[in-house]
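Appendix B. Chain record.
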Amino acid sequence: MSWNFEELQQQAEQESTSISDARALEEFRIKYLGKKGLVAEIYASLPQLSKEEKPAVGKGANDLRNTVSRIIEEKKTAIKQKEKQSSKRFLDVTMPGVALEAGHQHLITQTIEEICGLFERLGFVIQDGPEMETEFNNFSALNIPEDHPSRDGFDTFYLDAQDPTDKTKKLLLRSHTSPGQIRIMKNNKPPLAVIIPGRVYRPDAVDASHSFMFHQIEGLLVDKDVKFSDLKGLLTAFCQRFFGRDIKMRFRPHFFPFTEPSAEVDISWAKGKKDWLEIMGCGMVHPKVFEAAGYPKGKYTGLAFGLGVERIAMLKHGITDIRNFYENDKRFLEQF
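Structure tokens predicted for this chain:
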């Protein structure tokens, strides 16, 4: 079979004049450059040609392919420009606009602000503390022994940076908000009533109830003659305002190195649940914590408590997986 490549190129140029949209352009491309197109057919015939014919036919096929490729690129540009101009030309300025979607606070932020707001109305002041802490503030000052498992590298994120107050120690990411107690007491004299919200870090495997980063809120009240009954009354008032007045509570004896006596607060509330659920730890500030903060021995007493924000939010809103808070799924976040 013989081809007149000059006529084929003229034919392609002529056909291209009627191309006005992307669909027609694609049909044009398939006809000439597709797997079963004209250029492929010419290349497939080369083995059947004589040595004398092959060079001319091969060159003709290459020229035709280049011509068609140029036409396609030119038409693509023209079609895009036409669509752009068309969209401008047919813009209906009388159509109502699309309203911008209003944002809102993340549920964790909402929960922190709600809890802090409740304690502010009870006379507490909001304070904060650094997320990078010294080993002394995070452990030693809180009466946590040197051999306590929580000091291990498997339970705490230690940093390469040295502690400027003790070159033999490394700084760490705080594993709880309790170090804020030490910093505040070192710089302030009683009476104190503070709430310390913030992020904390522990090298836990991420699952439905654990994360390597989460939020806590620490509470501290120091004055003369503070009693455990004050602690019980304070936390009862908080739980009733946060969960509702029908909340059932109990204080269960527990152990924390930094409080004595210590307790955990459990709730069982009117959502068809019969089991008791632990929501926070609390107790009377240990004398050794006062000593580490530089307070005179026996002069003051105080109460302290700490709660996990994610856990509180999960209980209140019926959320079963802590990962939902951080996966940025709008379908979840827009519910709150």
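Further analysis of this model is presented in Appendix C.
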